[in-house]
Amino acid sequence: MVEVRPADELPPGRVPLALTSTPTKRGKPPRHFADLAPEEQVAAVTELGEKPFRAKQLATHYYSHLSVDAAEMTDLPQASRDALVAGLFPPLLTPVRTLEADAGTTVKTLWHLYDGVKVESVLMRYPGRATLCVSSQAGCGMACPFCATGQLGLTRNLSTAEVVEQVRSAARSLADGEIAGGPGRLSNVVFMGMGEPLANYRTVLNAVRRFVAPAPEGLGISARNVTVSTVGLVPAMRRLAGEGIPVTLALSLHAPDDELRNELVPINTRWSVDETLDAARGYFEVTGRRVSIEYALIKDMNDHAWRADLLGEKLTARGRGWVHVNPIPLNPTPGSIWTASEREVEDEFVARLRGHGIPTTVRDTRGSDIDGACGQLAAEETP
């Protein structure tokens, strides 16, 4: 058994949540340019015998041109570019399988990392925007029973560069016109792929900093277009509020009562619904950013009208204007007992929430025909 903690130490008296997987001991991924802050990039290029200004040239190629190809770095001498690419851009992700849906505007990729570990990302193109759903861990230790990734258990945390490379690769595919709809720009990133982002706090924050930094030090994505999800690691939620980066916080709640949430989201046995909602409200108070409540609607499990009323009451008790609810029709996994709610039940759930004055939007689901739930492709390849 292995314990995964959020970024902060557990409060006194809290019992660590035992997880259901034993990660294999693995080495660290090789150092990559995206792991490095600007001052570290300068140090790295000088270690390789190059002038300090080469760091900015590399940053421009990586973050502005989205390139790791030495042949494209024509403003560097041939010998320098080969040495720098070999030393600072090791291949971290290899695409193993790519599936398309929605006339090619939804693309799901299964990646093998440098050590053979599997993760997934999903690129979704909409009119006026393109969103990438990224993974922050290989597998997940939160053990939510309706989640394909949760049933895989935790293998390991991803490095900063392994996260950033998912985003750079998607941005390059869009820029090159490889996604249906012609050349475009990646506008949004959501940490809703494999893993619990706040259980890999340092990596996620470092990656977010790379996303939002202006070119050539980063990808120049608006912080408001970056969403960090969590099942409710309360100390890490509070810490995130103080980072000074106004990302959107998405709380995967899935039940408004402790009895059911203890079953659906086992971390709730450590931090209750009320503690979690208080932390979410606190995030809004510090950042001014409205919090999203994610609620997977599961047939005959959490979709009762009285639960919608209870959720509405708990949210309004903490004020108005601070929260938005996204009910999500469950994307079932093969062989699972969990399935999506009936449409009329979904409609009633939404109506009840809106009746409490809670802004509510049913999340558009994509990729159900390509094993769209995160973890499904990885699970298929697990021996």
From TrEMBL:
[4Fe-4S] cluster binds at residues 140, 144, 147. One of its GO terms (cellular component) is cytoplasm. It is an enzyme of class 2 (transferase). It catalyses: adenosine(37) in tRNA + 2 reduced [2Fe-2S]-[ferredoxin] + 2 S-adenosyl-L-methionine = 2-methyladenosine(37) in tRNA + 5'-deoxyadenosine + L-methionine + 2 oxidized [2Fe-2S]-[ferredoxin] + S-adenosyl-L-homocysteine; adenosine(2503) in 23S rRNA + 2 reduced [2Fe-2S]-[ferredoxin] + 2 S-adenosyl-L-methionine = 2-methyladenosine(2503) in 23S rRNA + 5'-deoxyadenosine + L-methionine + 2 oxidized [2Fe-2S]-[ferredoxin] + S-adenosyl-L-homocysteine. Residues 1-29 are annotated as: Disordered. Gene3D superfamilies: 1.10.150.530, Aldolase class I. Its main location: cytoplasm. It comes from the Bacteria. Its EC number is 2.1.1.192. Reaction proceeds by a ping-pong mechanism involving intermediate methylation of a conserved cysteine residue. PANTHER family: 23S RRNA METHYLTRANSFERASE, RADICAL SAM CORE DOMAIN-CONTAINING PROTEIN. HAMAP family: RNA_methyltr_RlmN (MF_01849). Specifically methylates position 2 of adenine 2503 in 23S rRNA and position 2 of adenine 37 in tRNAs. Belongs to the radical SAM superfamily. RlmN family. This is Probable dual-specificity RNA methyltransferase RlmN. It comes from Actinotalea soli. The lineage of its organism: Bacteria, Bacillati, Actinomycetota, Actinomycetes, Micrococcales. The gene is rlmN.
